[in-house]
Structures are given as C-alpha cells and as structure tokens.
Amino acid sequence: MPILLSSQHPHRSPVSLAWLHQAAEALLIITGRDEAELSLLLVNDAQMRELNRHYRGKDKSTNVLSFPQIGGDDPTGGYLLGDIVISLDTAVREAAEKGITAHSHCRTLLIHGLVHLLGLDHERSEEEYRLMLAQEDFLAQELKNTERRNGMINLAINVDHVATLRQARGGKEPDPVTAAGICELAGAGGIVVHLREDRRHIQDRDVRLLRELVKTKLNLEMGANEEIIKIALALKPDMITLVPEKRQELTTEGGLDVAGQKGKLKKVVAKFEKAGIPVSLFIDPAPVQVAAAREVGATFVEIHTGRYADATSDEIADREFELIAAAAESAYETDLRVNAGHGLNYLNTPRIAELGMIEELSIGHAVMTRAIFVGLDQAVREMLALL
User: What's the average model confidence in pLDDT over 280-308?
Assistant: First the structure.
C-alpha cells in the first residue's frame, strides 16, 4: 500500500509525519484498499489557497482538498485512489479553536479527505451528507482501535532494581554495571539509572563506570538537588531526566510539578543545556505540565504512565491512555521530544508503544522481575519483541 507522503510546508511540521503515514496506511487497510496508492500532501495556507483557486474557483484557503484519480487502474494493476492535500496552517488554527491537538484534527481531515476519494460528497445531497458523517465516525473509531506504529520504539532499561538487590546485602553483587552491559548486548537502546540523594540503590561508583562503559545512551534520572546537579555536570551523561524525589517513597510516585516551580527548573535546565546535556522532565500527562515544560526550555518530556499501568479496570485504563496520547501529541506539537515510562510491563506496554509521537520507553521493574525466571538477556529480548 504505497503512501506517497510529502510536505511543502516551509517550516517544521507540527504533526509527526511518521504518525500521519502510519494513520493513512491503517485507513487503507480498514477500507479494504490495502493495495491502493494514496498521495498525501501537506501545504501552508498560501499554497492551499492557490490550489483551491485553480481547481475549485475559490480564492481562499481551506483545511483539506481531495482529488480523486481519474482513469481507474494504473499499468501495474494497483488502484490509484488519488490525492489528499491538508493545509497545516489551517489545521493547527482550527485545532486550537476546538481545544484539541493538531494531530487529532489532522486525523479527522485525513479521514474526511479519504471518504471523498471513496466516492461520497456531502455537497450533493442531505442523504449523502449523513452517509459521509456515519462513514467518517466509523473510520475514526476503527482507526483508534487499529493504529500501529511502523518503526520500533527505542527501549531504555532502568537497572536501579539490580542495585536495590545488591544494597539489600551490602555487598558487590549483583552489579548494575554488568546488568547494563547485558541489556545493551540484548538490544536495549539505552540505560537509565536514578542517582538519589540518599543513595538507596545506585551509587556514585555505578554512574562513573556506566558513563565509561555504556555504548548506547546513558540517561541519568535525578532530583533538582545541588549536590546531584554538580555530579551530573561533571559526569556529562547523554541525557538528564529531572524527577520528583521524596525520601519516604518506594519509587517515584508521580510527575514533576513543572508548572509550580518554573523559575527554579528553568535555571537548572539552562545549566545543563549550557553544558551540552539535553534535559527531559518527568511529567504527568496534563496540558499545564506540557506547556510548562516547554516554557522552561526542556528538550524532552517523559510522560508518567503510572496511573495507566496501575488501572484497576479497562475503563480507567482507557481514560488514562487517552490522557497520555493527548499529552504526547501536545508535546510533539510544541517541539518537545517525547518519551514515556513508569509501571510498564509485558501486558500494558504494546498499547503505549503504538503512539507514534513517543520515541522511547523507560522500563525497569518488569524486565528485572521477568529476568529472575528467564534471564536478563531473554527478558530484554522479549520486551523488544513486543515493540
């Protein structure tokens, strides 16, 4: 199913092109046109106005135009559906007016354009208008149920729990540094450690050795504590993730309240950015936190998936998933890169991995638990297979 996706928009697309390509492929499968060829073009308002004037005699921009292929089958026997053109300028503006993400609105415009290519036209009659609405609602729901990510998301393994087991006896084994090496050999794309103020698991020695030995990417989780900031600046990990930290908690309980401490965090982020270390902020999937993360200058956000992972019913899980999806879309649209993690396991991870805006998942406890029974190498490979 060739999807010919191109952008003539002069600026960075506020919508993930990989996600849009994925959505178009899924829609062709849903409509039984999986052998068809579809062209999808993204433009700005000026370009859309010119197309609308030239082909429809309307001297104004619009959100989406469809151009059905005339002539039927192509020489190879595949069916050419035609072209869908979306104005990103208008899509973003309309999304803001509706209070939804640009990704969500582009999904609607893509479906609307495709239904036109399939032969329906809401301008011909009231009956066809109702049929078109019903078809669009059906496709939107089916797309929601069947969207799948084409490229494999990156998997970063948190080895804190190996250090927790070591510290329980106060000895040298098991060694989280050795565990990190096994994870990388098994295919993990990054290693995550949390150097806590109380050093309850990961020690200074661990992060020094990991900095020297990790071949993929070392992500240092930390609180915005002056002592740890100095260590991180000297260590220069590949990435910093700022998290909330309380001495009495067993594990990180929620996202960082970026909105409530923007002044402090902006200074901390600036220190790391000056040192050439990108910063991620671990946040709850809330619009106010996404906006605040952008304001303080973070490069990434890591969306907290804990409430989704801990959901006690399908209804709660669905609601929390929608919050995560909306936060991921909003973050991407504000030029933030997006990771996610916390509480993910072998059952609930694939659904999060379907979100095309998320680059990386950080998973630790589930992999280490599985490793007790099948070995660490196999546990990592099994998680990678799910992605």
Answer: 96
Q: Are residues 87 and 167 in the same domain?
A: no
The CA-CA-CA angle for residues 21, 23, 27, to 5°, reads: 120
Record the tokens describing residue 215, joined without a space. Answer: 């071949």
Query: Which residues constitute the domain of residue 134?
Result: 3-146
Does residue 95 contact residue 329 with C-beta atoms inside 8 Å?
Answer: no
pLDDT above 70: residue 289: yes
- Are residues 285 and 182 located together in one domain of the fold? yes
The position carrying tokens 């700005």 is 44
**Positive or negative: CA dihedral 26, 31, 35, 36:** negative
Task: Examine the pLDDT at 147 and tell me if it is beyond 60.
Answer: no
Contact 377, 182 (CB under 8 A): yes
pLDDT at 75: 47
The total domain count for the chain is: 2
Catalytic residues: 194, 221, 342
Residues 184 and 317 both lie in one domain: yes
Mean pLDDT for 234-250 is: 84
In angstroms, the CA 379 to CA 33 distance is 38
Domain boundary among 119, 146, 173: 146
3-state secondary structure of 174: coil
Per-residue pLDDT tens for 125-141? 888 888 889 999 999 88
> In the prediction, which pLDDT does 76 show?
44
CATH number at residue 337: 3.20.20.70
Contact 201/194 with Cβ under 8 angstroms? yes
Contact indicator for 80, 37 with CB cutoff of 8 Å: yes
Q: Which residues contact 312 (CB under 8 A, 6 or more apart)?
A: none
Question: Which of 126-135, 177-186, 321-330, 362-371 has the least mean pLDDT?
Answer: 126-135
